[in-house]
Design goal:
alpha+beta; Nuclear Transport Factor 2, Chain: A; ten-stranded mixed β-sheet; Peptidase; zymogen; protease
């Protein structure tokens, strides 16, 4: 590793001098410094941070929110001029006062700091991180420059991006503040963008998180029968949502796209349609194909200011992927037949991906995810924030299957979305036809995801490939070493053992030897679609994989001197294309929104994966943009049903569908304490999985979905996602503003409190009561507790709403708690074995009592007038935990019941 030590020493000297001179004065540069300083020293400040802990604070970022009129100021602590990692407090300032204070300062810093001088340099820290993550030889890494207080090193052989390194303090497991090098490495294969803190004295990894949020949607849904097919829909032409929303002001670039237009969720939910000039004039004033801010498109392909959509079939994460070209007229109308290899409709897939990324950009721009807040744009048109970070959206990514991910670095660095192909639903067809001999007949097989598409059968004699066993493997038929029978393979179909090397290596070896196709024989593993590996992009011949028994029989027959003539064909089943599931694409984009808005756009580590609510926000983003007139909150909605080839009312990728009905989704805050989740997949198979990130996210989205329907019930639904005034639009506003206000490393209570603060800023508190009702119903009431930080087993749920006399509720227009209090009724005995009595002190009118078991099944329902005592007969019910929902005009609450 070559390094210019003179430059680095001078950089660190200047950095240290800058810190010592600026120090506390850094805060004074903010026009809100006086307001913040006054608040920190006032009795209102309940953070209990000592004066010495506040001596070195700087403004990490300031963002003004147009909707709320709030200045969101993000304060970061330092010690001796060195930043404390994620010690970021979000301060909301309105009308020259501190409106909201999400305190995340470290306390008693002086006592907890363990060291002040590093023993390792930045290069050594990079080496330690590379070793920890098993990234291999780091190659030539050199110091390049200083940028935003960080030393920037070259990529070497381990990263796709330059490696920024900064000296910070970070908290370890013992609660000490240790000096560490903070650095990030975007791994070559794109599966991880590690943000890591390396102890600057010992080289140990103190903590780390991954900016690539990989959703692992495949879960345990292993059995996917072909139970749903896309409709044979006719094509129609539409303008998005209300005509007046866009048509009068849209940039007149003539663009049109044949896509699954919102609110259509997927091919299972409706037909494609032509959308014309859909770019929103406020969010994308020069259209979707502009980058220079001057009228006229810079690109006629699926590339522009907000996103560059291209394929990554070969999994090289480069810029050489295919982007469909709409020509000078920007006409992206291509034919689609879903019953074929997905590569046959790559143009349509990429156009849909381009469309939904742009629509997500434009819609959420209206609610506050704009340039100053860190949105994704190549050119910010002078509106604040850092530019050069349009989304790189990759269709039919060859790096995996049954998944999707989104990588979100800090503002000014481009995120990447990777959309994969999903399960081939149904029974494999006869991809191999043997035309002669004792083995004549059809055999099942899977086509590769790279090389030529088998649009028509390829017919030739079969020849077993042999190699020289030169060191890569010990199997002479796996094409992992030098091919020795090229002359025999010329013009033939090569038969190859699965072996140990990449499929792309095998196919390229066979092609270079003159084979016109390849037949891969698997080992003890099940056959399936083959990925390209590092060199698959160079392969131009088709290939399929067959099972071991069939392959062994073919090889044995050829070994006996038989001539076998065969045909390879694409007989299905066909994989699902993730870029057609708008809800999942929106989910991935949503990770970028929640990451950029939490703790400020310069900090990508504030949604800590130890308690990742981001999965919940992302599910919610997908649900919101696919709501339709006529929908009701009690209807269960799954996520990713198209990708899993399920009916539209299927379970999807979660263990529960989203619904306001506890019989469909009974999750409450207490469910976040479960370490292992049991349930059934869509086919009724028992499953046990330990995926806490996604499970916790499901609980959070359940609450947000309930909140949305409470708003819709009060204000109605408006299909105009841009400029509408319905309850769904209000929910979108309050959630986005809540993200800005909740602070770094939020847990459920901080998420709830951010939303409450957002409502206070947006409406003066008109919906405080509605919000409390919703969260309390799911156990996130006023006396709920997150437990200890970063512990996942000590959350305490509570179903209480605030006292109606609370001043914050003064402007409420509705509150069920104002009509009843928890003290107005009681439930006994609990636990119970025969009868459960509900006793009310006042007349709560007609109600429905519904008892739901832990699996969401409704086991008892009773409609009655709730005054005095009402009894429920629970004899015969299995022992366990149940939820009793009491719902009427004056009450809507849930209580846990234990049956002995």
């Amino acid at each position: 590793m070559k390094r210019d030590y003179t430059k680095i020493v001078m950089f660190l000297f200047v950095l240290a001098f800058t810190f010592s001179v600026k120090g506390q004065s850094e805060l004074s540069k903010s026009k809100y410094a006086g307001i913040i300083t006054s608040y920190l020293s006032s009795s209102e400040n309940a953070s209990k941070v000592s004066g010495s802990d506040l001596t070195d604070i700087y403004v990490n970022r300031e963002v003004f929110s147009k909707k709320t009129g709030i200045a969101n100021v993000y304060l970061n602590q330092r010690y001796n001029g060195i930043k404390i990692y994620n010690a970021i407090t979000a301060v909301g300032i309105k009308n020259n006062k501190v409106f909201h204070f999400a305190e995340k300062f470290q306390k008693n810093i002086e006592e907890r700091v363990t060291s002040k001088t590093p023993l390792l340099n930045e290069s050594q820290a990079i080496e330690k991180a590379a070793t920890y993550f098993k990234l291999g030889a780091i190659g030539e890494i050199q110091y390049i420059e200083s940028e935003k207080g960080k030393a920037v090193f070259s990529k070497g052989a381990i990263s796709q991006e330059n490696i920024p390194v900064e000296l910070v303090y970070t908290e370890n497991e013992d609660g000490d503040l240790v000096l560490a090098w903070d650095l990030s490495i975007y791994t070559i294969e794109s599966s991880h963008w590690w943000s890591v803190r390396v102890d600057a004295r010992t080289g140990e990894i103190v903590n780390h998180n991954d900016w690539v949020i990989s959703c692992n949607f495949d879960g345990n849904h292993s059995n996917h029968s072909d139970n749903h097919k896309a409709g044979n829909y006719s094509k129609s032409s539409v303008n998005l949502f209300k005509a007046e929303s866009n048509s009068l002001y849209t940039p007149a670039d003539g663009s049109q796209y044949n896509v699954y237009a919102l609110p259509t969720e997927s091919p299972f939910h409706g037909p494609r349609s032509i959308v014309t000039q859909p770019a929103d004039a406020t969010a994308s004033p020069f259209g979707w194909h502009d980058t220079d801010g001057i009228a006229g498109a810079e690109y006629t392909i699926t590339r522009g200011n907000n996103v560059w959509a291209l394929d990554d079939i070969n999994d090289n994460d480069g810029t050489d992927g295919f982007s469909p070209d709409g020509g000078a007229s920007l006409n992206f109308d291509f034919p689609l037949n879903l019953d074929q290899n997905p590569r046959g409709y790559l143009d349509v897939s990429t156009v849909n991906l381009f469309y939904i990324n742009n629509v997500m950009h434009d819609i959420w721009y209206q609610y506050g995810f704009d340039e100053a807040s860190g949105n994704f744009q190549e050119n910010n048109y002078g509106k604040g924030g850092a530019a050069s970070d349009a989304v790189a959206a990759q269709s039919q990514d060859g790096g995996g299957q049954n998944n999707a991910n989104f990588a979100t670095p800090a503002d000014g660095s481009a995120p990447r979305m990777q959309m994969y192909l999903w399960f081939a639903a149904g029974t494999p067809g006869d991809a191999l036809i043997i035309n002669n001999g004792s083995l004549a007949g059809g055999y099942q097989g899977f086509t590769a995801s790279f090389g030529a598409v088998l649009s028509s059968p390829v017919t030739a004699d079969l020849v077993v490939l042999t190699d020289d066993d030169g060191g890569e493997s010990t199997d002479p038929n796996d094409a992992c070493d030098l091919v020795t029978n090229a002359a025999a393979l010329n013009g033939k179909i090569a038969v190859i053992r699965r072996g140990t090397c990449e499929f792309g290596v095998k196919m390229l070896a066979a092609e270079n030897a003159g084979a016109i196709a390849a037949l891969v024989v698997t080992d003890d593993r099940e056959p399936g679609p083959m990925g390209p590996g590092a060199v698959g992009d160079q392969v131009t011949i088709p290939s399929i994989m067959i099972d071991k028994a069939t392959g062994d029989a073919i090889i044995a027959s050829l070994g006996n001197g038989d001539t076998i003539n065969a045909s390879l064909q694409d007989a299905g089943p066909y994989q699902r294309d993730g870029s057609f599931d708008n809800g999942v694409v929106a989910h991935e984009y949503g990770h970028g929104i929640s990451t950029r808005l939490t703790g400020g756009a310069d900090n990508s580590g504030c949604l800590n994966s130890n308690f990742q609510m981001g999965e919940g926000w992302s599910d919610w983003f997908g649900l919101m943009i696919t709501m339709k007139p006529g929908d009701v909150g009690t209807t269960g909605r799954g996520i990713g049903t198209f990708d899993l080839n399920q009916p539209n009312d299927g379970l999807g990728i979660r263990l529960r569908r989203y619904s306001t009905d506890f019989a469909v989704n009974e999750y409450t805050f207490d469910a976040t304490n479960d370490n292992t989740v049991e349930g059934q997949d869509v086919d009724g198979n028992d499953i046990i999985r330990n995926r806490r990130v996604h499970y916790i996210g499901t609980v959070w989205c359940t609450m947000l979905w309930d909140l949305t329907w409470a708003y819709v019930d009060k204000y109605g639904f408006d299909p105009d996602l841009y400029n509408g005034t319905g309850g769904n639009n209000r929910a979108m506003s309050v959630v986005i503003e809540g993200l800005k206000l909740q602070g770094c490393n939020p847990e459920f209570l901080e998420g709830r409190d951010g939303i409450l603060a957002a409502d206070m800023a947006l409406t003066g508190g008109e919906d405080q009561c509605l919000i409390w009702d919703v969260f309390a119903r799911r156990g996130l009431g006023v006396n709920a507790s997150n437990g200890l930080p970063f512990r996942r087993e000590d959350q305490v749920e509570n179903f209480d709403t605030p006292d109606p006399a609370d001043p914050s509720l003064a402007n409420c227009t509705t509150l069920s708690a104002a009509k009843f209090n928890a003290s107005d009724y009681s439930i006994f005995p609990n636990p119970a074995s025969n009868l459960v009595t509900v006793k009310s002190k006042k007349d709560l009118g007609d109600v429905t009592l519904k008892l739901v078991d832990i699996n969401g099944r409704e086991v008892l329902t009773k409609r009655t007038s709730l005054i005095g005592e009402v009894e429920l007969d629970v004899k015969g019910l299995q022992s366990g935990l149940y939820i009793l929902n009491i719902k009427g005009d004056y009450i809507d609450t849930n209580e846990k019941i234990v049956i002995k």
